[in-house]
From TrEMBL:
Organism, scientific name: Sphenostylis stenocarpa
Protein name: Bet v I/Major latex protein domain-containing protein
Record-level GO BP terms: defense response
Domain Bet v I/Major latex protein per the UniProt entry, residue ranges: 4-153
Annotated InterPro entries: Bet_v_I/MLP, MLP-like_ligand-binding, START-like_dom_sf
Source superkingdom: Eukaryota
């Protein structure tokens, strides 16, 4: 069995929306995201727990490379003070390619908005598995759509 190292892929998105607003949608109002980002995100459902609580299990149905894909994630860690949230992938298509996959998103206040830092920590099943750039791009697009929604509906 090949062993692969834990790897990291990250990016930042500049937002006009506040860090608190962005965090609130991502953590507490997750169920609203499909109506904000309908082109890619088909549905979000809670399977265990409540929205915005550690340990809750959420499934996301989204379009990835032209096909409907589902991932089930546990809301692993919530840091409200720092507008930071992390999800651990529990089931789904991603685990066919990665032994482990964690998504960490933090919104940091800045003058006239915020910066959203998206980090993927993952371990590939095999060395020749590509890095998850396409999934990161979907996360960036989702963040931009949330920003548009917040700046047009909450000002």
């Amino acid at each position: 069995m090949e062993s692969t190292q834990l790897q990291k892929l990250e990016t930042k998105v500049i937002m006009k929306a506040s860090a608190e607003q962005f965090y609130d949608i991502l953590c507490n109002k997750t169920h609203q995201i499909p109506s904000i980002f309908p082109d890619n995100l088909l549905s979000v459902q809670i399977h265990k727990g409540q929205w915005g609580t550690e340990g809750s299990i959420i499934s996301w149905n989204y379009l990835h490379e032209g096909k409907v894909t589902e991932v089930k994630e546990m809301l692993e860690d919530i840091d409200k003070e720092n507008n930071k949230i992390s999800f651990k992938v529990m089931e789904g298509e991603l685990l066919k390619h990665y032994k482990s996959f964690k998504i960490i998103i933090q919104a940091t206040p800045k003058e006239n908005g915020s910066i959203v830092h998206c980090v993927f920590q993952y371990q590939k099943q095999k060395h020749d598995i590509p890095d998850p750039h396409a999934i990161l791009q979907i996360t960036v697009e989702m963040s931009k759509k949330i920003n548009e929604y917040l700046t047009h509906h909450h000002n």
